[in-house]
Amino acid sequence: MPSWSEFEAAAPDLATEVRRRLEAHRHKTIATLRRDGSPRISGTETEFRDGELWIGSMWQALKAHDLQRDPRFALHSGSSDPPDDPPDWPGDAKVAGVAEEITDPGRGHQVDGPETPPEPSHLFRLDVREASTVSVSGDELLIEMWTADGGTRTIRRK
């Protein structure tokens, strides 16, 4: 499963665009799978560090339990409302893959102050199976995507 840096090496231009769109919004939406296989969407924040894409989760949150049970996820960058003039729409990005929980106590705890005991939290590194951007080019919807198995391709829709 490719790390973010491996995706970046395989498709540098697309990775730059995906990252720019992920960083454009603090809050993103992540889809995980419930125990019964149905989807669950949750808010999340992302961070790029050491060539990897990361998310955190509150301790014992449902999305953390979902990812521990079935690590598949889909992440959406967030999006602005398209304006009346579509070429001004910055577009959005999606990343899908597998999350790996990292249990390093130094990275998986948060402290509110010097006398507050650390509160545990979950930390997940996101491996990338596919990534895409969606934007408008002239009168077409432009989808640029990369998959670990198929490389990069472009889809245009009117």
Describe the structure concisely.
With 158 residues, the chain is an alpha+beta fold.
Walk me through what this model shows.
It is globular and about 50 Å long. Strands 1, 2, 3, 4, 5, 6, 7, 8, 9 and 10 form a ten-stranded antiparallel sheet that branches. The chain has one domain: Pnp Oxidase, Chain A. It is of the alpha+beta class and 158 residues long. Helix 1 crosses helix 2. Residues 107-117 have low confidence and may be disordered. The longest helix has 12 residues, at 12-23. The protein has helices at residues 4-10, 12-23, 62-69; strands spanning 28-33, 39-44, 46-49, 52-58, 72-76, 92-101, 109-110, 119-137, 140-147, 151-157. Strand 3 and strand 4 (52-58) form a beta hairpin. The chain is built from three helices and ten strands, in the order ααββββαββββββ.
Query: What is the rounded distance between the termini?
Result: 33 Å
What is the CATH topology classification name? Pnp Oxidase, Chain A
> How many domains, in number, for the residues?
1
Q: What's the CATH H-level superfamily name?
A: Electron Transport, Fmn-binding Protein, Chain A
The number of distinct β-strands equals: 10
Report the principal-axis shape: globular
- As residue ranges, the low-confidence spans are 107-117
CATH class label: Mainly Beta
Order of helices and strands: HHEEEEHEEEEEE
Helix/strand class = alpha+beta
Mean pLDDT over the residues: 88
Task: Name its key features.
158 residues; alpha+beta; Pnp Oxidase, Chain A; ten-stranded antiparallel β-sheet; 3 helices; 47% strand
